[in-house]
Every structure is written in C-alpha cells, then in structure tokens.
Amino acid sequence: MIEAVVFDVGETLIDESRIWERWATRLGVTPFTLLGAVGAMAALDRSHLDALKLVKPDFDLASERERWAAEEPDSLRENFDQDDLYPDVRPALDALQAIALSTWIAGNQPVAARQALMAMDLPVRSIIISSDLGAEKPDPRFFAAIASAVGVEAAHILYVGDRLDNDVLPARAAGMRTVLIRRGPWGYLHASRPEAEKADAICDSLLEVPAVAGSM
Predict the structure, then answer these.
(1) N or C: which end of the chain has fewer CB within 10 A?
(2) Which residues of 56-82 are buried (b: 16+ CB within 10 A; e: fewer)?
(3) Same domain for 29 and 108?
(4) Do 176 and 157 contact (CB within 8 A), yes or no?
(5) Are residues 124 and 140 in the same domain?
(6) pTM over 0.85
C-alpha cells in the first residue's frame, strides 16, 4: 500500500520552457536552437549542461551565473516561479490529500528553488532538494534520504519523475514504486525506451497519479 507520493521538480511539477528561453537569449541563440540542442543531449544520454556548451563552447556555468546575477539581480534568470507550475499540479496534490496520502517534493535543485516552491504554498509535507542533502539523483543516498524524511518503508513510497536515469531506475533500486511522467524532452524520449517497462506506471498527466497510487 502506498502511503506517500514524492514528486520530482523539473518537467514534473515545473514547466522549464521559459528557463530555456531565457538561457537562449542570454547565450545569443534562438530558443529553437537551444531547445533542439537540449533534445539532442537527451537522446545521447548527456547532461543538459552540454547543450549550453554546444552553443557556447567556452561556457562555464558558475561564472555565467555570477555575471548574470550581477547584471540582472531582479530577474528570474534560470529560476522559476508560480507561472511555471504545470496546471495539473494543484489538482493532483489535492486529489492525493483527499485519499489521505502524504505528498512531498524532492529533486536536484539549487537553494533558490526551495524558496520558489515554498512561495507557491503547495499542499505538501516538505520540500527536499539536493543542495540540502549534499547528494544528487541518481545517487542512492538521495533516495535513502527521502525514505528517512518520509518515515515509511521505501516500498510504501511512490516516486514520480520524468526520467528513467534520474528518477525511475534509482528510485526502483531503492525499493520505491515509480511513475514515469511523459512530458518534457526526457519524459517523451524515456517513455519510448524498453526500460520504461520497469516503471510501475507511465502517465501523461499528474491527474492520473492518485488512481495509480490508490491501486497499489
């Protein structure tokens, strides 16, 4: 029986389109060019950061972040806000509460993401980010920390994410049940791979998750 549902952030709860569009503007290319590069990196199982380096070979993330913050201190830059929340998030969380399941957020995110998510006042028990843990997905320590925070056996936790490599496979290895959400470049690509069969369910909307969780 599932007792808790834990959600990834990027392309699970948050539509990252505007973030990539701002990065494209920052690097002086069209959004189509950068998004195409992101899709190519996803297909090659390479980091999304490689897409930024592809269009700007001398790209250094830390220094670029520092310059961007200095030049545009009041802009969102690579961050997100309420307007980036997928429209099915709140209804799905409310539906899970209605069937007495606790909900959590846990993803590879910087400190600023916690503040942004907290400002949305989502009905979740807690927000766990990699910056707090000192470990990023797919590191097993990340999923062990989730189970410890939630306080139930891993087998009673359902982890929802858009990637096989970072979400479904390591969560499954940690003993959790899993949902692969089919959206974003990785979601669509990974749902078409044979390994997607290892997910307990593949969903096109978070509105499907309460029924999935309730059937386990």
Answers:
(1) N
(2) beeeeeeebeeebeeeeeeeebbbbee
(3) no
(4) yes
(5) yes
(6) yes
Q: How many CB atoms lie within 10 A of CB 139?
A: 16
Any idea what DSSP says for residue 104? E
Phi, psi values for residue 13, rounded to 5°: -100, -35
pLDDT digits (tens, 9 = 90+) for 51-102: 999 999 999 999 999 999 999 999 999 999 999 999 999 999 999 999 999 9
- 43 and 143 in a single domain? The answer is no
* Cβ–Cβ < 8 Å for 209, 179: yes
Distances (CA, A) of 198 to 45, 109, 153, 190, 195: 18, 25, 20, 11, 6
Q: Which two tokens stand for residue 86?
A: 């997928």
CA distances from 152 to 67, 92, 161, 191, 207 (A): 43, 21, 20, 28, 24
